[in-house]
Amino acid sequence: MANDAQVSIQATILPDEIAKTLTGTMTVAPVDANDKWYYKLTACTTTSTDLITALGLASDVTYTQHGTLPGGNVQDALADLADQFFRQAATPSGNNLQQGDMWYNTSTELLHVYREVSTGVYEWHIIASAGGSSPTSFTMDGGSF
């Protein structure tokens, strides 16, 4: 019908890196010839600080289980990853150590892996060293696997 009104809407939301564009079209037909339309083209742009802040919290973003990470929120995943990799001079210890954890000793420039050497007995073993005659020297020790 000639007097039908067609409305198209397009909205882009979220920051550029994760932006989503929502689109839609709707047609409205008048009940009879006495119905009249008022038309005004309007553009609306806004930024919601609250929305952007909520999306920025790692504890509010969830993910599904992948590899050794059990699933949950990004904040917990970062903590899980931090518990698997150590970069310090002191030997890591405690109840959170698991087989396969890595430790780079900042004093000796040695890379270690935490592995089971006999049933129920775990130790740190050197798997690589840095240094030597050149700043790019790197030695792998396959015997530690």
Alpha-carbon distance between the termini? 77 Å
Flag low-confidence runs: none
Mean pLDDT reading: 77
Portion in helices: 10-25%
Number of domains: 2
Number of helices: 2
Largest sheet: 5 strands, mixed
What is the β-strand count?
9
Q: Reading side by side through the largest sheet, how are the strands ordered?
A: 5-6-7-8-9
Blueprint (SSEs and pairs):
Blueprint: E1 5-13, E2 20-28, H1 49-55, E3 62-63, E4 72-73, H2 74-82, E5 85-88, E6 102-105, E7 110-118, E8 121-130, E9 138-140
Parallel strand pairs: 5-6
Antiparallel strand pairs: 1-2, 3-4, 6-7, 7-8, 8-9
Outline:
With 145 residues, this protein is mostly beta strands. The protein has helices spanning 49-55, 74-82; strands at 5-13, 20-28, 62-63, 72-73, 85-88, 102-105, 110-118, 121-130, 138-140.
